[in-house]
Specification:
304 residues, mainly alpha, elongated
């Protein structure tokens, strides 16, 4: 009997990894909160505008959400750290991709503005930097939102349509880890390619391109290609990377998140996603009114 009980206990521990969280089982209000948090809802029942804005940012921000998320949120601390590692790696991949693209296509990388410092150093703003800090950071924000939805897997959480499937609640967590590994492999490939491109440019005398020519770097892998890093200046893209990830996490994410939260893009129409908090409040009120009408209908028929 002891061997049988030990085996049953081990099976129970193994299956608990795939079993949905039962802390909220039997509590409809808690199940509703879990669903709303998993869906990145702009409004929680009983909250005012400021409270809703804070819960939206604290539960969904890639950095602040690690410590400030709601205890009922299906995405816990470890998964959030994995997601943060993924967003940092994705930003690194975007920065290196833009760097390599403009090295191979120099006709698109032009100086927009320059500032000469007192020590003779000249700071330049190029089209490549501008594209990275705008479009690249915007793609980075979209990536963060997509990863959050995958990790939450709202339909499989408490109150979701697939709640009864035992393995579903953990599916999003494993998927996000797999995606982070793939992004890490892609970023490694891009970094190696960028360093190799710098080595090739050094062989050409350090001249990226002729301003009168639109021909980019003629780069090919060969057996004699040196992938070692001999100069710290080869990593000058680090500054651009730090600017990109700072803008993405601490400027664009709160700014565009607040715009979506306010619902200003919907222009007073009830449109999902861009309708923001006003749309979700109106939807909740309609659902509540339908429920009240449904409760009154049996009474009226009984009285007749």
């Amino acid at each position: 009997m002891s061997a049988y009980s030990n085996k049953m206990e081990q099976d129970k521990k193994r299956s608990s990894v795939f079993r949905p969280n039962r802390n909220t089982e039997g509590d409809p209000e808690a199940n509703e909160i879990v669903q709303l948090l998993a869906l990145q809802s702009y409004h929680l029942p009983g909250n005012n505008w400021i409270q809703d804005w804070w819960q939206y940012m604290s539960n969904n921000h890639p950095v602040f959400g690690i410590c400030c998320h709601n205890k009922l949120h299906p995405i816990k601390g470890f998964t959030r750290i994995v997601a943060l590692l993924g967003t940092v790696t994705f930003g690194l991949a975007i920065t290196n991709f833009c760097y390599v693209f403009f090295l191979w296509n120099p006709e698109y990388d032009r100086v927009i503005a320059s500032i000469a410092l007192s020590d003779g150093t000249e700071l330049e703003l190029t089209t490549g930097m501008l594209l990275l800090w705008t479009l690249g950071s915007g793609i980075h924000c979209s990536f963060n939102l997509a990863m959050w939805h995958i990790a939450a897997c709202a339909c499989c959480q408490s109150g979701g349509c697939l709640e009864s499937y035992a393995c579903c609640p953990s599916l999003g967590k494993y998927m996000i880890r797999f995606f982070v590994l793939c992004i890490g492999a892609f970023a490694t490939l891009i970094i190696v390619l960028r360093v190799a491109t710098n080595d090739r440019l050094e062989e050409l005398g350090g001249v990226y391109y002729d301003e009168n020519s639109t021909e980019g770097v003629n780069f090919q892998f060969d057996d004699e290609l040196d992938l070692t890093v001999d100069n710290v200046s080869e990593f000058d893209f680090v500054l651009n990377y730090l600017v990109e990830i700072t803008l993405s996490l601490f400027v664009y994410y709160p700014f565009f998140g607040t715009i979506l939260f306010s619902g200003i893009l919907a222009c007073d129409y009830n449109i999902p996603v861009i309708g923001g908090r006003p749309y979700e409040i109106a939807t909740a009120e309609r659902r509540k009114s339908r429920g009240q009408r449904g409760d009154l209908t049996p009474q009226s028929s009984h009285s007749v």
